[in-house]
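Weekly modeling sync, notes
Attendees: AB, CL, MP (scribe)

Item 1: holo prediction request
CL wants a bound-state model with zinc ion before deciding which constructs to order. AB pointed out that an apo prediction alone won't tell us much about the pocket. Agreed to run with the ligand included and paste results into these notes for async review.

Input as submitted:
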Amino acid sequence: MTIRILGIETSCDETAAAVVEDGTVMLSNVVASQAELHAQYGGVFPELASRMHVESIIPIVEEALMAAHVGWDDLDAIAVTYGPGLPGSLLVGLNYAKGAALAKGLPLIPVNHLEGHLYAHWLQSGADDGSVGRPRFPVIALIVSGGHTELILAHGHGKYERLGGTLDDAAGEAFDKVARMLKLGYPGGPAVEQAAQKGDATAFDLPRAWLPGTYDFSFSGLKTAVLRALQKYTGPMPHSFHAHMAAAFQQSVVDVLVEKTARAAQEFGVNAVLLSGGVSANGALREAARAQVPVPVHTLRRILCTDNAAMIAAAGYHRYQAGDRAGWDLDIDPGLQLT
Ligand code: KG4
Ligand code: ZN
């Protein structure tokens, strides 16, 4: 029997809904991004994000059902992100999902946003052109986004071990902050990547926080080094400065992310490495990972790298099969981890 799940995701600044069959077939995947709204603040403005979710959630879910050509009666469950994320944003999606589940008599499945990023790799036609087929456990997942930098060893469905994560800024946050310093715009990741294409990564000697003996990351020292280099110029800046700095910064982030991911893949003898999250759209990161990781590297189409609800429905399917059901007292968990 086919299991059809409506996924709902509002953990940050994307209001998203999707219908997915059996955790693999995307019938629809609708994402309303607030990026333009937050661009004027150079980052996500939490209060505004939650208010936008309130306005968007009902039309976005209706659109997801319509695009999938299904009605409420065709659904088996509603899967919703309950953490990690911004409290005010998470509350909108969770309370909408509770209301809809209660009204329509559907079970409610609690989903960890990070598990969603992992399960994006189980969606059919989710892979980008470098497709290597559906992953087989055990795998190493590198989840890098505006809010997270997590290195996870996944032994099987629902069996995770957190190897490490960032001690300060998330990788995407570092991209966003450096883009702001270089006046490249928001969101910073794509802007830095574009600028870096015209730059020479060896033009600046930026630090790399190796944190030996751990799978943890740190990007705040790197960010400060970029700021110091910028402050050195009081007069007119050389024309090539921004491109060189973008390239050097990107290289520094990529070097550490890929070195630790490759080492983890080797140490734990996994079958594959899965790259997820907004930063995994970065071409330099993908290229370096493919060159240095000793096992196949799975990457996603851009729409599935960044926050979306198809990945929540995909993760929700495995939770549904495992018998996980949320009670009506389910609360948000903004600091939720994947363990
Ligand atoms: O997964 P996502 O949509 O949201 C979070 O859960 O945070 O990721 C957004 C983040 C932003 O920080 C953005 O700058 C970064 O992903 N990003 C990139 C690229 N595209 C998006 N970072 C580096 N290179 C890119 N091409
Ligand atoms: Zn995310």
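Recorded for review: Residues 12, 145-147, 172, 175-176, 187-190, 193, 277-279, 281-282, 306-307 surround KG4 (ligand 1) (CB under 6 Å).
Action items: CL to compare against the apo run; MP to circulate these notes.
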